[in-house]
Amino acid sequence: MALAFGGEICLDLLGIGLKVSNFAAQTAVVLCSTPAFSSRVTICCQRRNSVVVTRERGKNDKLIKALRNHQIECLELPLIEHTPGPDLHRLALTLQERSFQWIVVTSPEAAAVFANEWKNAGCPKVKVAVVGDGTKQAFRDTVSQPNFEVGFVSSQATAKVLAEELPKPDGGQSLEVLYPASLKASDDLANGLSHRGFKVCRLNTYSTESVKVLPESDVQMALRASVVAFASPTAVKAWMELVAKTHDWNGAAACIGGTSAAAARKAGMEKIFYAHNPGIDGWVESVLEALKNVSAVAT
């Protein structure tokens, strides 16, 4: 008997015990030769230590790198795409014509969109408040420029906490806040700030949409993963519509935070793990917890 590669899985095929060591692929090609049986057999197996990452292509790198440090393999399956929002054309003009005490930014994509339009507006002086270090890092190429300041980072990467913690200026100063947001973002931030007396100008500068179709070969590979990592309700929706509802998949969801976890629960998923403090570190922990749970159930 000869094996095309190795794994740590024991199989029994037509009464012949096969042990595969260093299992590292979705498909094992086994070459068998015994007095009673000689054939070439392809065996497809679910990978228990693999994760599907679902952000836009190229925006999963941090998570993939962090998971590789734990010897976890990733399949990049983009389930979302960003499109211009209905207010995008107003952002640069608003920055030119008005001044704000704060610009509040709640995601890396919102940061990228804002930075581009800020430059188009001629780089006026702004002070930005962000949710968490992940969003702050999205401004890494902008903060070194004149007139741009990241003046506040919330203690937790949620809009609710940012609304509670955003510093108020001294008496007599403007309480106007510009909120360049996703079209699908909730009103939690704007409502929280308004409740504290801020005057919020919300501009829906981009939208997050589900992809409409996936290559069947990518779907089949994704189905062999035991965990899917979600960073938005839109990604959850796409997974359910394009993969889970049309195929037999019963894995676990590892979510970046409570919003995505709530969407997964509403979609009917049962094994859901999420970071209580959103960010890459917490997301990695939720993935590890999900993998541990799946492994425990399998054994």
From TrEMBL:
Catalytic activity: hydroxymethylbilane = uroporphyrinogen III + H2O
Protein's UniProt keywords contain Lipoprotein: no
Record-level Gene Ontology MF annotations: uroporphyrinogen-III synthase activity
Biochemical pathway: Porphyrin-containing compound metabolism; protoporphyrin-IX biosynthesis; coproporphyrinogen-III from 5-aminolevulinate: step 3/4
Enzyme class, broadest EC rank: lyase
Pfam (any one): HEM4
Domain Tetrapyrrole biosynthesis uroporphyrinogen III synthase: 62-285
GO biological process: protoporphyrinogen IX biosynthetic process; uroporphyrinogen III biosynthetic process
EC number, UniProt record: 4.2.1.75
Keyword set, alphabetical order: Lyase, Porphyrin biosynthesis
InterPro entries assigned: 4pyrrol_syn_uPrphyn_synt_sf, 4pyrrol_synth_uPrphyn_synth, UROS/Hem4
One term under GO cellular component: chloroplast
Keyword Nucleotidyltransferase: no
Similarity remark: Belongs to the uroporphyrinogen-III synthase family.
Function text: Catalyzes cyclization of the linear tetrapyrrole, hydroxymethylbilane, to the macrocyclic uroporphyrinogen III.
Protein name as annotated: Uroporphyrinogen-III synthase
Source organism per UniProt: Selaginella moellendorffii
